[in-house]
Amino acid sequence: MGQYVADGIILGATLALGAIGLTLTYNILRFANFAHGEFLTFGAYFALVFAAWFAGGATLGPLTFGPGFLAAIVAAVLLTGGLALLLDALLFRQLRRSEFAVALVIASFGASLMLRNVIVFVWGSQPEYYSRNIAVAHEVLPGVRLSADEMFVIVLTAMLMVALHLFLQRTRLGKEMRAVSDNPSLASVTGIDVRRVIRWTWLIGAGLAAVAGVLFGLTVQISPEMGFNLILPMFAAAILGGVGSIYGAVLGGLVIGLAESLSVPLIGPAYKPAVAFALMFLILLVYPKGILGERS
């Protein structure tokens, strides 16, 4: 059972990073972005390209990759952030002027389909891997075996979450993002550049999604469908934790990851998504706004 808990934490860390981006988008831009899953996929494939360019040299200790892979992650974050800004400029910015918020959601569905097909056209439909090296798992606790790559996923995710917390609490831009999240009109009146905040929201949300895609590809595999397969669990994590709460998204991601992993020995892997959604519905029956959502 301990191994399933460890696997659930690793999956939950990936879901949490993706759910944070969804929450930021919903908080500041006021719509549910279904194209967010494709940011994970593009991030994973961007890192694949740069990992091939930076290939060579020794690996970092017991990890299956070398220093070039870390540079590939940075490049993937920047390119995915640029993709998000481009998508906003060509599509979402125009629709934000509309009185119908549902237009943004429908447009995000269309953007998701388009981006997924672009991935298949450019990289093909076959799964890819960052490294052919075998990740050897070692016993870290009685009955729990983890590879160095999986430990890297946990450590990097924790570091990013702490960095995001400090950014939102200590920096001027982070405080401006919180202000725009609470009341965009009032924030604009007080002199905050809302358009600048929106640009940074896309960059940070898409960047975190790119890292989530890279980490999922590192521990599982890279495929054009990975973002599509993860978008609904990420939405479930955001809703479970409380829509609008970044810390709730983290908690929701861990809960969903653990629920999916622990369901495997009981009912098999085919029903993992159903178990996650069932848990979300049960929690929302008791806490309609989510675990950490604001109470009315």
TL;DR?
The protein is mainly alpha-helical. Helix content is 73%, strand content 3%. It has one domain (2-231).
- H-E string: HHHHEEHHHHHHH
Structural class: mainly alpha
**Head-to-tail CA distance between termini:** 38 Å
Rg calculated over all Cα atoms: 19 Å
Number of strands: 2
Major β-sheet annotation: 2 strands, antiparallel
- Lateral arrangement of strands in the main beta sheet: 1-2
The unreliable regions are none
Q: Number of DSSP helices? A: 11
Task: Indicate the mean pLDDT.
Answer: 89
Count of the domains: 1
What share of residues is helical?
over 70%
Q: Beta-sheet strand percentage?
A: under 5%
Shape: globular
Please describe what this structure looks like.
The chain has helices spanning 2-29, 36-53, 67-95, 102-123, 148-170, 172-182, 184-189, 194-219, 226-241, 246-267, 272-286; strands at 137-141, 144-147. With 296 residues, it is mainly alpha-helical. It has one domain (2-231). Strands 1-2 form a two-stranded antiparallel ribbon. It is globular, with a radius of gyration of 19 Å. The relative contact order is 0.20.
Keywords:
73% helix; 296 residues; mainly alpha; two-stranded antiparallel ribbon
Q: What is the fold's blueprint, element by element?
A:
Layout: H1 2-29, H2 36-53, H3 67-95, H4 102-123, E1 137-141, E2 144-147, H5 148-170, H6 172-182, H7 184-189, H8 194-219, H9 226-241, H10 246-267, H11 272-286
Antiparallel strand pairs: 1-2
Helix pairs in contact: 1-5, 1-6, 1-8, 1-9, 1-10, 2-3, 2-4, 2-8, 2-9, 3-4, 3-8, 5-6, 5-8, 6-8, 9-10, 9-11, 10-11
